[in-house]
Every structure is written in structure tokens, then in C-alpha cells.
Write a structure and sequence with these properties.
- This protein has a three-stranded antiparallel β-sheet with strand order 1-3-2. It has a three-stranded mixed β-sheet with strand order 4-5-6.
- It is elongated and about 70 Å long.
- It has twelve helices and ten strands.
- It is α+β, with helices and mostly antiparallel strands.
- The protein is 42% helix and 13% strand.
- Strand 5, helix 6 and strand 6 form a beta-alpha-beta unit.
- The chain folds into two domains: 55 residues, Arc Repressor Mutant, subunit A (Orthogonal Bundle); 185 residues, no CATH class.
- Helix 5 packs antiparallel against helix 8 and helix 8 packs across helix 11.
């Protein structure tokens, strides 16, 4: 390859792919850069090789959202979830400087080292909802204003249930309650459908308990309209990771 075509291709690469976002071989091949040529560009200092088949512009500072967008192309259902999703939508409490990202997806997945070394994070593949079709799944994911276009983020109604699911394991009870207190204007229809399809009795009961205490939603009206999986009529008791007991009544 002579100098002119090669440099024209480099220029095309620089103008076709966004800064701050990693890209894979599929994206490079769409603009005419083969795997062999990508490796050559990395050796020449034009690109940084982040991991197997993943590159970025040399010296570029990656954004977490741009990196997550690449992972979304590889992992079914991957989205920003729980506490991290609430943070992106203005619900926060004592936000840590380097708060770990909470990501959920539909399949088992180990985030690559190039991602976790830059962005402290935790990936969850729990099946929290039995969703018979993609309608509710799509309704419960959004891209909040001011967030990287195309980034999938749980809506508040879904995010709070993901948060409550992790209470007692990866999520402290006190912080979860403080975040719950910051919720506003939850949509009853979306919330009802998500609760109705929820696979975690603890999550449903904890939501109903705190919803009654905060009046974030009319629990009695919700239970009249939707069949919520609260389990038996007995108290649900579990010992949390910190040793404390969590006791929940069936209907909050």
C-alpha cells in the first residue's frame, strides 16, 4: 500500500469514529480497515490495542458511557442498572467519587480487563423479571437527557427494583432507603407490570413496605390492579450480609 491511500484511510478512520469511544474489528472493517491493518496501525502508534479485537485512538481518554455502548453490542440486554441508573436520572445520595458502575444483562458475562481497569464496575445477570416479550423490556430502558446517545439505562421504575434486589448483598439497606426516599413521579403502569413479572419476593415486599411508608405510589390501588408475587401470608425473613435480619410482611 503506498503512502497516499494509507493516509487517506487513516483520515477516514479519524473522521468516521467518535473520540472517547473504543471500537472493535467490525466497526473498523466497515470503513475498510482490516484486522491486519488495525494491528499495523497499533504498531505504528495510530491506535491503542485495548484487548483482543478492541482498539481506541492513541492517547484518547475513554468515557465510561462510550465503553458501555461497545459492550452493549456484545452482551444481550446489557444496560446501566440499579443505583447507577438512578444516579443518571438525578436520584442520588452521598455520591462517591469513584462509585462502581452497576451493569445488568441477560446472559452470563465477565467484563473485559480493559473495561474494569478503567471503570470500576459490577455486572449482574440475575433474571429479575419474567418478560414474555420485548415490549416491557424496551419500555423499561431509556436514554436519559444529557447521556451519550444510544446508552441503555433502566427507567426509575426498573432501576429501583434492581436496587432493592441487591439489598443485603451488594447494596446497603440504609443507602437504598435514602435513594428510595428521593424517588418522584413513578409511573404506576410501568411499575405495576414490572412488579407483576418480578421473580424476587424480597424485592416486591421491600418495595411495597417502603412505598407505603413514603407514599411514593398508592400501594392499595396497585395491588387491586395487578397480581403481585408476594409469596405466602407469612413474614419473609432473611439475614443480610452485615448480619442484620430483614423482616417483611406480605403486603407492605
Amino acid at each position: 500500500m503506498d503512502r497516499t491511500p494509507r493516509h487517506a484511510l487513516i483520515k477516514k478512520l479519524q473522521t468516521s469514529l467518535p473520540r472517547g469511544t473504543p471500537f472493535d474489528l467490525a466497526a473498523l472493517e466497515r470503513i475498510g480497515v482490516s484486522a491486519q491493518l488495525a494491528a499495523h496501525y497499533a504498531e505504528s502508534g495510530w491506535l491503542d490495542r485495548l484487548g483482543q479485537g478492541v482498539y481506541a485512538f492513541a492517547g484518547d481518554t475513554l468515557s465510561a458511557h462510550g465503553a458501555i455502548k461497545l459492550l452493549q453490542t456484545r452482551v444481550v440486554g446489557l444496560h446501566v442498572a440499579g443505583r447507577s441508573a438512578l444516579t443518571l436520572q438525578g436520584v442520588r445520595h452521598n455520591l462517591a467519587t469513584r462509585e462502581a458502575l452497576v451493569l445488568w444483562g441477560d446472559v452470563r458475562f465477565v467484563p473485559p480487563v480493559w473495561f474494569t481497569s478503567r471503570f470500576p464496575s459490577r455486572y449482574v445477570s440475575a433474571r429479575l423479571f419474567n418478560l414474555p416479550d420485548g415490549t416491557l423490556a424496551s419500555k423499561s430502558l431509556t436514554t436519559p437527557p444529557g447521556v451519550t446517545d444510544g446508552l441503555r439505562v433502566s427507567v426509575p421504575e426498573r432501576a429501583v427494583l434492581e436496587l432493592l434486589y441487591e439489598v443485603g448483598t451488594h447494596q446497603g439497606l440504609e443507602e437504598a432507603r435514602n435513594l428510595f426516599d428521593g424517588l418522584r413521579n413513578l409511573r404506576k403502569e410501568v411499575l405495576g407490570e414490572l412488579l407483576q413479572s418480578c421473580t424476587s419476593i424480597k424485592t416486591v415486599r421491600l418495595f411495597l413496605t417502603w412505598a407505603r411508608e413514603t407514599n411514593v405510589v398508592d400501594v392499595d390501588a396497585l395491588q387491586k390492579q395487578y397480581t403481585l408475587p408476594v409469596g405466602s401470608d407469612k413474614r419473609w425473613i432473611t439475614r443480610m450480609k452485615d448480619g442484620n435480619l430483614l423482616s417483611l410482611k406480605p403486603h407492605g
